[in-house]
Amino acid sequence: MNSTKKILAINFGGIGDEIFFLPSLISLKKEFPDSEITLALEPRSKGIKDLTSVIDNLILINPKGKNKYFEMLKLLLSAQKGRYDIVISSGSNKLISILLFLTGIKIRCGYDTGALSRILLTNPVKLNKKQYACSMYHDLIRGLTKHNTELPEIEIERRPKINNSVLIHPGVSRLSVEKGCIKTITPEVWAKTIDLLVAEGKKVMLAGGPDDKECIDKILSLVRTQNFVNLYGTTKNLKDLAGLISSADKFLCSDSAPLHIAVALHTKTYVIFGPTDKDSLIPKSDMVIPVMADDTCELKPCLWARRQTTCEKLDCLRIPAARIAGIVCKN
């Protein structure tokens, strides 16, 4: 195949979704080393370009705002104007195949959402959600490349490891909270976990982004020990956060974007899981250890699979600090 291609990839979602999509882009770059890859994504996730060299251009589209139809028209016109050879979309909406067909791009890869998609797409692919999300996205390009990039890879200048350190990033995105998706333990449990890790001799560092201020402030008001380093506010962007994660011996976090950065950096990671599906969100690896409640909820994991918001009980997130600290110290 000709190695020179103009490729348009469309992947809407948060930073975590863009990191999940990276293996697909990396495999395409390996197959077509002289290609130019343009990624259409939401403005909130544009920082992904700072973590990789495989993305040449960005098209910022907001498909969830009040002007969503205008935004999709903007995407369509950009796709038509760009004279791309290949377009790939991770969307599972039945209208995606129509959008891709209207771009006029010769090779159109997307999920099989019915008879119409099998007519309009040149490469319709069965959507298999019962696997690691990176693999789910990578299925889209199976017909284009022999390469199989299993894990995300990011390109940053790594920092020296801090021996015996545990970096804690407790927050989740503000958008998740606003939607009623509770995916982490309370500040009280985070504070107690810090106390216990320090008591075990760990060098604890606490970090967070702008969305985490309320959570961090509450933790700082509750933690008893002073023998930890508060790094909140020192990471100004994703690249800063990735550098900090690379310096940690161990990383403890919630189910959020920093988890996927840590996976890409091969940092030993412990992640709090409650209502979400760990099998689709983390790879099968000794480097990533899920920390879960010992509850008996028959619906777990329920978030997104069975409901769009979390329940009021949240038994799946009643994880004692002693259990969390014990897992981090033992493994």
Structure report:
The chain has 331 residues and is an alpha/beta fold. The chain is 34% helix and 18% strand. The chain has two domains: 6-141, Glycogen Phosphorylase B (Rossmann fold); 162-330, Rossmann fold, CATH 3.40.50.2000. It has helices at 15-31, 68-81, 96-103, 115-120, 133-138, 174-178, 187-199, 213-222, 238-247, 257-265, 278-281, 321-330; strands at residues 6-10, 36-41, 57-60, 86-89, 107-111, 123-125, 162-169, 203-206, 229-230, 248-253, 268-273, 288-292. Helix 4 links the parallel strand 5 and strand 6. The longest helix is centred in the N-terminal third of the chain and has 17 residues, at 15-31.
Blueprint (SSEs and pairs):
Blueprint (H helix, E strand, L loop, with lengths): L5 E5 L4 H17 L4 E6 L15 E4 L7 H14 L4 E4 L6 H8 L3 E5 L3 H6 L2 E3 L7 H6 L23 E8 L4 H5 L8 H13 L3 E4 L6 H10 L6 E2 L7 H10 E6 L3 H9 L2 E6 L4 H4 L6 E5 L28 H10 L1
